[in-house]
């Protein structure tokens, strides 16, 4: 087998993993595909004679491509995703020196919606291995180098010694990037209940209480410090909000009561979620993070242009 054929075979073998890396780095399905394609262009031109671990090598190639894309976003102040700012303490700073500011604008990462009828094997792998949307939101708030260190090391077991050259830091400094990211994840994206049935029960109870306008029942279902993050897109900025606290979120849910009859249960990035589709048209996708039977976070996408692009039918 010649070198080009060997490279192509290895690349196709590991493509699902490479897409998973790119999605977790970028949070955009279109950009994920662009990053993987760019990675192939680079791989096809590389000297792979000395490659002993193709999976690790290809993972770092995709990581480098994604890091460049994230840094380009920052420089150009582009959508998507750089509109997020870390919701940390005033005056806090990113691990690579950038100042942290309060979270004031939002663009939800592209949701991965479980569809048992789908026949795209790569997409099914991506969905099956997805991380929660709440975790994606927290990662979108990280500086690019911090996100790379966390994704490659904590999610794909790449050693810090191999990540360090990508971020132009020592292995020890790279380890600190991942450690800081880990703290943000621990504080901002708690691990959801492992039992899907328990997740679904909480979500079903949420919509039932909203339908009945039962504010007390809603408050009882929500964690006191629950956060609701909603992205309405450029044409519906009034829907781009962050609400905190059980009473605030419950009040909002009661205002949604008329839509509760159009709810369809789905899995979103591996956790219990819902698609709201009055008269067959999807108007909202909602992912719920449920911990100990209570909802601690709701991440909602109501950007009609992006929702139409998902191609969902109900």
Task: Give the arrangement of secondary structure elements.
Layout: H1 3-26, H2 29-45, H3 54-76, H4 121-128, H5 133-140, H6 144-156, H7 160-167, H8 171-188, H9 196-212, H10 215-221, E1 222-231, E2 241-244, H11 246-255, E3 263-268, E4 271-276, E5 284-291, E6 294-301, H12 304-309
Parallel strand pairs: 1-6
Antiparallel strand pairs: 1-2, 3-4, 4-5, 5-6
Helix pairs in contact: 1-2, 1-3, 1-4, 2-3, 3-6, 3-7, 5-8, 6-7, 6-8, 7-8, 9-10, 9-11, 10-11
Compact overview of the structure:
With 314 residues, this protein is α+β, with helices and mostly antiparallel strands. It has helices at residues 3-26, 29-45, 54-76, 121-128, 133-140, 144-156, 160-167, 171-188, 196-212, 215-221, 246-255, 304-309, and strands spanning 222-231, 241-244, 263-268, 271-276, 284-291, 294-301. 51% of the residues lie in helices and 13% in strands.
């Amino acid at each position: 087998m010649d070198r080009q054929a060997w490279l192509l075979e290895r690349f196709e073998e590991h493509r699902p993993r490479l897409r998973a890396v790119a999605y977790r780095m970028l949070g955009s399905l279109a950009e994920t595909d662009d990053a993987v394609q760019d990675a192939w262009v680079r791989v096809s031109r590389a000297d792979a004679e000395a490659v002993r671990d193709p999976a690790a090598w290809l993972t770092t190639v995709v990581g480098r491509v994604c890091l460049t894309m994230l840094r380009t976003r920052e420089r150009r102040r582009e959508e998507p995703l750089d509109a997020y700012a870390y919701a940390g303490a005033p005056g806090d700073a990113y691990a690579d020196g950038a100042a942290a500011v309060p979270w004031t604008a939002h663009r939800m990462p592209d949701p991965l919606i479980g569809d048992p009828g789908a026949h795209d094997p790569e997409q099914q792998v991506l969905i099956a291995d997805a991380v929660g949307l709440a975790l994606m939101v927290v990662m979108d708030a990280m500086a690019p180098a911090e996100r790379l260190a966390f994704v490659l090391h904590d999610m794909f077991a790449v050693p810090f010694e191999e990540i360090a050259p990508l971020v132009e830091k020592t292995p020890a400094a790279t380890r600190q990037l991942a450690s800081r990211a880990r703290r943000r994840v621990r504080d901002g994206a708690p691990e959801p209940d492992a039992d899907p049935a328990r997740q679904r029960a909480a979500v079903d109870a949420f919509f039932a209480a909203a339908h009945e306008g039962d504010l007390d029942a809603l408050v009882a279902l929500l964690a006191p410090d629950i956060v609701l993050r909603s992205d309405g897109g450029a044409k519906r900025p009034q829907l781009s909000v962050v609400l905190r606290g059980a009473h605030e979120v419950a009040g909002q849910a009661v205002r949604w009561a008329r839509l509760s009859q159009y709810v369809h249960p789905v899995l979103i990035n591996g956790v219990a979620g819902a698609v709201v589709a009055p008269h067959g048209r999807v108007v909202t996708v909602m992912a719920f993070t449920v911990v100990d039977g209570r909802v601690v976070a709701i991440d909602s996408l109501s950007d009609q242009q992006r929702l139409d692009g998902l191609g969902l039918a109900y």
